[in-house]
Amino acid sequence: MSSPPPPPPATAAPRPLDGIRILDAATFIAGPFTTAILAEFGAEVIKVEQPGGGDPFRRFGTPTARGDTLAFLSEARNKRSVTLDLRTPAGARVFKALAGRSQVVCENFRPGTLERWGLGWEDLRAVNPALVMLRVSGYGQDGPYADRPGFARIAHAFGGLTHLAGMPDGPPVTPGSTSLGDYMSGLFGAVGVLMALRHAEHTGEGQVIDIALYESVFRVLDELAPRHAADGTVRGREGAGTINACPHGHFPCADGAWVAIACTSDKMFERLTEVMERPDLATPYATTARRLAARATVDGLVEAWTRSMPRDEIVRRCTEGHVPCGPVNTIADIFADPHVAARGNLIEMLAEGVGPVTLPNVLPRLSATPGRVDRAGPPLGADTDAVLREVLGLSDAERAALRAEGVI
Q1: Torsion from C-alpha of 70, 156, 373, 200, nearest 10 degrees
Q2: 3-state class of 209 per DSSP?
Q3: Residue-wise pLDDT tens digits, 31-87
Q4: What is the predicted pLDDT for the residue at 1?
Q5: What whole-number distance in Å separates Cα of residue 331 and Cα of residue 132?
Q6: pTM score > 0.85 for this model?
Q7: Who's near 390: CB < 8 A, 6+ residues apart?
Q8: Within 10 A of 28 (CB to CB), how many other CB atoms are there?
Q9: What is the CA radius of gyration of the chain?
Q10: Any residues with CB less than 8 A from the CB of 182 and at least 6 apart, and which?
Q11: CA–CA gap between residue 327 and residue 202 (Å, rounded)
């Protein structure tokens, strides 16, 4: 069994969640992303995994020499891995004991699963009334669809985002990362946990945070709901543009690269005409309404201009002219960008049994109590003995018995 990495230096700055212990029994991305964020800011996250295989996310993505994946190394950062079979009575007892010594439990099983194992909300709050429980599922803990399985792709579709993604005359497509809904749900989960911890601190009472993946997607669709309620509008796929602003999209350049340009006000378009050296366009297309009425023409004029020179020259001219413009970056572009380097958006560290890995850095950036990444995702079960000894005081013999029974 691999040993855990050395602790951070004693001089390391304190973090806002120091002293908070979280049991992370979730798999894949949404729940684990919540706990990864909280771990960056000091929470002790104990990742509880099934003996033998662990979190299936360990096998999702590009495998490493250790056997699990780069995706897992990134999203299981700062966690301690404990193997524990929750389906066994002995495993359930250990989990319940750990919950009694923790502030937060995170899970994403199908609704009712933990209840069948004697580890539902009522069971856990009986041993820890101040416990906060984050429950993430495809459709939430109640409602007619609660029992349906759900992943981010399904959440994008059900939540209304997929219908908007793609060209007007083409099929709906996956919007960017197939896991976008998971990551958004993870962010909402982190907000929910922090608010619930604040409440528990004042009252001594815990609560459940119930997040459905599709609800996180639906929440970020700007005016779709009020617009439909107001006049029945059903927005469809709009390609690279939008019905709310023009020019506002992606435009090809002479070198085969692309730029994004966003003129969300009349003043911004006026500046663009100056950058394009086409002041004759400012009057006929002076207002958003006029530009939207002639969107194909306006976008065509902008495209003809962007095609006339390389991407970096387009970005330079727009930047100097105070027109919102940016490169459509590949990951190689991001690695080479001086701004990304200056902001420290990428970090390199040693992963146990793997070697150097590069990961996205911590967000958000706090000036007084910044987060940090102390450890990439751990080997399966790397911390089982240490956690059961330190947190529950289990002896060598007791741990050996659990291991012999296949519980850990």
Answers
A1: -140
A2: strand
A3: 999 999 999 999 999 999 999 999 999 999 999 999 999 999 999 999 999 999 999
A4: 34
A5: 37
A6: yes
A7: none
A8: 20
A9: 25
A10: 28, 29, 30, 33, 151, 152, 155, 213
A11: 47
Q: Which residues contact 202 (CB under 8 A, 6 or more apart)?
A: none
The rounded Cα 333 to chain-centroid distance in angstroms is: 22
One-letter amino acid at 316 equals R
**250 membership: H or E segment, kind and range:** strand 248-252
Asked whether the CA dihedral 227, 228, 230, 233 is positive or negative, the reply is positive
Residue that the structure tokens 């604040």 belong to: 198
What is the structure's pLDDT at 11?
55
Structural domains for the chain:
21-219+341-404 (3.40.50.10540), 248-252+258-327 (3.30.1540.10)
Catalytic residue (choose from 55, 68, 182, 299): 182
Alpha helices in 210-265 (DSSP H): 213-219, 224-231
The answer to whether the beta carbons of residues 145 and 139 sit under 8 Å apart is yes
Classified as helix, coil or strand, 65 is coil
383 is catalytic: no
Q: Which two tokens stand for residue 230?
A: 């107001």
Phi and psi of 133, rounded to 5°?
Answer: -125, 115
Which tokens belong to 168? 């007007």
